[in-house]
Amino acid sequence: MRDHSGEPCARHRALWSGEDGAEGTLKLARASIGGVEVRVHNSPVHHAFTFTPSFSFFVDCSSQEELERTVDVLAKDGGFLMPPGNYGFSRRFAWLNDRFGVSWQINLP
Known about the structure:
Layout: E1 10-14, E2 26-33, E3 36-41, E4 56-60, H1 64-75, E5 79-85, E6 92-97, E7 103-108
């Protein structure tokens, strides 16, 4: 994957034979999102939890149209924690989990 300048913006490493977990399963991924490097680690250890909304990506949009487009894409096969609306702290806001369970807060300041 490359960004608008042609620079790599995502890297990953899969598990190899002999490591804990199924061979070929994602172990570590790095991606550049808006110039910020985000790292994702996968643990082969079974936990009693999956994704949690205690961590969210927070995105400020520049227009209501941008917010609506962003929310529409992220909400597909996901679910809302707070549907798009005016909650008094910004002009428009939505909090949702995408189809993978990742939490997003989309804001129009």
